[in-house]
Design brief:
- The chain has 2 domains: about 130 residues, Sandwich (Immunoglobulin-like); about 120 residues, no CATH class.
- The chain is built from 7 helices and 10 strands.
- It has a 4-stranded antiparallel sheet with strand order 1-3-6-5.
- Strand 5 and strand 6 form a beta hairpin.
Length: about 300
């Protein structure tokens, strides 16, 4: 429900701006303005962000890159453009997301422009620049620690397919691990071959989770978002089996609250895994092969550090 309200707010804000009378174009030959729809936002919740660029007709601005809005993650919603006899104004609207609690500052960003091709002379041209004002945000938790309420099922732009290939690989790995354990037991006790052997216990949740994570790492990185979704599912299922929490139905923040008893190192690893997966699932941030490797490293280290030691 909260996501629906947030999305409605974003689209309502863009609709109202279209209905209101537009203000005049800034009377500056080169201008950059970055504004947010609110100064206090929630962790992982979308909020409106607007980037306005203005340049005079005799200038050619450099291309805009959305990565200039880091540390925020953004999703482009609309690009509009208007002009008068002297200047051009470009407005880009986004759904923005912050994934760090506390004060977050977007430092001043700069744009550059050179004389338009039809206005250039043979001499060296001067590059003109303009900078925006810094943007300060206060990022608060999604849940009220004193009254968190009912768990909210996670959602996102990606559908998680049933991992048939991974399930088969995990089954083969589990059978192989069981066969190795049986063989080692027989070699360790050759004089008891005629005695009735005790049944081999099934592999623990850490063995299964590590085998599934290894299968994700070993296969070709052809679908990075799907690998992030699958890694998140593996870790959540491990948490459910190891700590008896309903991790598959909880948000990352709810999991952190439920497992606050963990030591500092595994808590930090779990936060790293959750933050990386949330960026891809909810903010549709495009991951890289290096991001995938870092995610799998953190997930494997978390399982190893929290595995039960009999």
């Amino acid at each position: 429900m909260r996501r629906l309200i947030c999305a409605a707010t974003l689209f309502a804000a863009s609709g109202l701006s279209a209905c209101d009378e537009s203000p005049p174009i800034a009377a500056e030959d080169l201008h950059l303005r970055i504004t947010a729809g609110a100064t206090e936002v929630e962790l992982g919740r979308g909020f409106p962000l607007t980037v306005v660029r203005v340049w005079s007709r005799d200038l050619a601005p450099s291309d805009w890159e959305d990565r200039a809005l880091a540390p925020l993650s953004v999703r482009l919603l609309n690009v509009s453009r208007r002009e008068n006899d002297r200047r051009v104004e470009e407005t880009r609207t986004y759904a923005a997301y912050a994934f760090a609690l506390g004060d977050v500052t977007l430092p001043p960003r700069a744009i550059s422009a050179t004389p338009a091709p039809d206005r250039r002379s043979g001499a060296a041209e001067t590059i003109r620049t303009a900078a925006s004002a810094p943007l300060h945000l206060r990022v608060g938790p999604t849940l009220d620690p004193s009254a968190p309420g009912e768990p909210e099922l996670p959602g996102g732009p990606l559908r998680e397919p049933f991992p048939w290939r991974t399930a088969a690989i995990v089954a083969v790995a589990a059978l192989a691990a069981t066969a190795i354990l049986v063989r080692r037991a027989r070699r360790a006790r050759p004089h008891e071959t005629n005695a009735e052997s005790a049944p081999t216990p099934p592999p623990g949740p850490d063995v299964e989770a590590l085998a599934r994570l290894r299968a994700v790492r070993d296969r070709a990185a052809s679908d990075l978002p799907a690998d992030f979704v699958e890694t998140s599912a593996i870790v959540r299922e491990y948490l459910a089996a190891r700590f008896d929490v309903h991790a598959p139905e909880m948000t990352s923040e709810e999991i952190a609250v439920a497992l606050a008893r963990l030591e500092a190192s595994p808590r930090a690893l779990l936060h790293d895994v959750g933050a990386r997966c949330d960026l891809v699932k909810f903010a549709a941030a495009p991951p890289t092969a290096a991001d995938r490797a870092c995610l799998l490293d953190a997930a494997e280290r978390f399982v190893v550090e929290t595995a039960a030691r009999e």
